[in-house]
């Protein structure tokens, strides 16, 4: 039997798990004649990050990112009661996939630096970890909606870039998580 999730009266059939992050589980799903991402918020503990209301954070962060001009998937619906959101599915490889294979991602570093400049100008940092960036038609998309107030410590040049090539930090992450 196929697993289904309902978001705002639309039933979606789950195709596969795309990822599990600090805030929820993201699934590739199909419904209403199209493929989307359904994110189910979870309340699992996270020792390095604290949350308030995750659904409100998703909505607020989405607006902040849109206002900053960051290339992100469209938010389609928010189901506050079931703590689910649907968003546009961006189909492609992640920067993480490419780095793990040993591919050079220099052509995308220019794009992420442009995003970093836009984020900083809006007083934000985004999560520069390479699983959060998908390539579609030569463009990178920031597929997470997480953003925080800007701090130099967490910008791309001081933190994110450490994971955009096969650095010791990247290789340790792969070893610890796969």
Task: Record keyword descriptors for this entry.
10 strands; 178 residues; alpha+beta; two-stranded antiparallel sheet; Phosphorylase Kinase, domain 1; 4 helices
Task: Briefly say what this structure is.
With 178 residues, the protein is an alpha+beta fold. It is 27% helix and 31% strand.
Question: What do you see in this structure?
Answer:
By secondary structure, the protein is an alpha+beta fold. It folds into two domains: 4-88, 2-Layer Sandwich (Phosphorylase Kinase, domain 1); 95-177. Helix content is 27%, strand content 31%. The protein has four helices and ten strands. The strands form three sheets. A six-stranded antiparallel β-sheet has the order 1-2-3-4-6-5, with helices on one face. Strands 7-10 form a two-stranded antiparallel sheet. Strand 3 and strand 4 (34-41) form a beta hairpin. The mean pLDDT is 93.
Topology:
Layout: E1 4-7, E2 10-20, E3 24-31, E4 34-41, H1 54-68, E5 75-79, E6 84-88, H2 95-101, H3 106-121, E7 124-126, E8 133-136, E9 139-142, E10 147-149, H4 168-177
The CATH architecture name of the largest domain reads: 2-Layer Sandwich
Largest sheet: 6 strands, antiparallel
Helix/strand order: EEEEHEEHHEEEEH
What is the CATH domain class of the largest domain? Answer: Alpha Beta
| Number of E-type strands | 10
Radius of gyration: 16 Å
Number of domains: 2
Terminal residue distance? 28 Å
| Tally of helical segments | 4
- Integer average pLDDT: 93
Strand content: 25-35%
